[in-house]
Specification:
The complex is a heterodimer of chains A (70) and B (191).
Chain A: E1 20-21, H1 23-30, H2 34-43, E2 49-50, E3 56-59, H3 60-67
Antiparallel strand pairs in A: 1-3, 2-3
Chain B: H1 12-24, H2 26-44, H3 46-57, E1 66-68, E2 74-82, E3 85-92, E4 95-104, E5 109-116, H4 119-152, H5 159-171, H6 179-185
Antiparallel strand pairs in B: 1-2, 2-3, 3-4, 4-5
Helix pairs in contact in B: 1-5, 2-4, 2-5, 3-4, 4-5
Classes of the chains: A alpha+beta (70), B alpha+beta (191).
Amino acid sequence: MEPIPKTEEQPAVTPTERLAYSVQESADLLGVNYFSVYRLIQRGKLKVCRALRGKLLVPREELLKLLGTQ
Amino acid sequence: MSNRFDDRRPTVLEEQAHAEASQHFAEHLEQFPVSRAAVERLERNIAKTTLAANMAASKPTPKENIFQVYGDGQWHKSVDLIDNICLCHRPITGGVEYAVVEHFPARGTNEIWNRGWNAVEVLKVFAQEQRQALQIWTEDMTAQVKEFLVEKYPGQDMSRVADSFMHRFTHAVSQQHSPSHEQNHNRGIRI
């Protein structure tokens, strides 16, 4: 019997690709100040989730959506 | 700045943790008072801004101040408010309509925050939303500082450091503020 060739599973995201960013990281990525990001959150333009201690995290998808690339 | 460690002096470890947190969140400490001052200016100047908007609405708008809002036609810029946000107007049957419009440089689009026939009301609603955004910022900062301290100093009680840092954060005064304003502001935490 021939050995079954191993198939390499592609992960959904590469190990270096982050799933979510803090507000300051999001501001840096978007090229805006921190207040602009909090304003976007307040308006619901950026959907956020909360980490264990309540820190806000912006999912990568939300940033892409905001930029109109997704 | 007064010692915010209340009943007893901070330990060496607490002082070190405070310094580290201040360094780590230096950008927040710098940007928050500037943003809060901008919101306070906005609140203080609602009447003045309304007058300026009414005057702008009574004259022809220069071409460069007329822009398109996606799905909502043309608007005329009246007054700059904060960052990339301005108060706009446009003539409608029987009067003038006002709107707060934000320009998103990343997307190159303009979007309406809120609108109405009464410029004062439009500005008040906008200012209120800015306050809410500052509140979200403060809550996030509290969580971030706590996380930072727990990770840096596991097993240590750093609650006084977190409190002291947040006091500094919410009471920091923008350099654009006058000393009398600083005095009033330090009477209580208000964000």
